[in-house]
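Thread: quick sanity check before group meeting

JM: Hey all, I'm pulling together slides for Thursday and realized we never actually wrote out the predicted structure for the chain we discussed last week. Dropping the sequence here so it's in one place. If anyone has concerns about the input, flag it before I start.
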Amino acid sequence: MYQQMIFVNLPVNDLDASKKFFTELGYTINPQFSNENAASVVISDTIVAMLLTKPFYATFTKKQIADATTTSEVLVCLSAESREKVDELVDKAIAAGGTASGPTQDHGFMYGRAFDDLDGHTWEVMWMDPAAVEGQG
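JM (edit): ok, ran it. Output follows.
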């Protein structure tokens, strides 16, 4: 069965620093789709973050590239299998040089935290109680 994938393309200032950041979170770099202008960060079987140098990113758009440290253009939200996994990933991100972003969200059935990566892109990490999801329509 076909599984649709998502490739999140993000402009970065320092490709090597960004690769180091994401590998410190436990993700891998797919060398087949990486070079001096891009790094393919494998988040899961169906999610890939493409880190692109700003000059290379600019070849894909005629729009101005947002400065993610001052402008929000996208919030990337990743699911986690437990509250502990939410904390684990966000704590790794902070230890690797990222910054906490916003308050912890604890709604009982749903728990989340967020971090900004080295370039200011916001990554939310969210756990939702499977029983609450199954109870939805």
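AS: nice. The CA atoms of residues 46 and 126 lie 17 Å apart. Helices lie at 15-24, 54-57, 83-95, 130-134.
JM: adding both to the slides.
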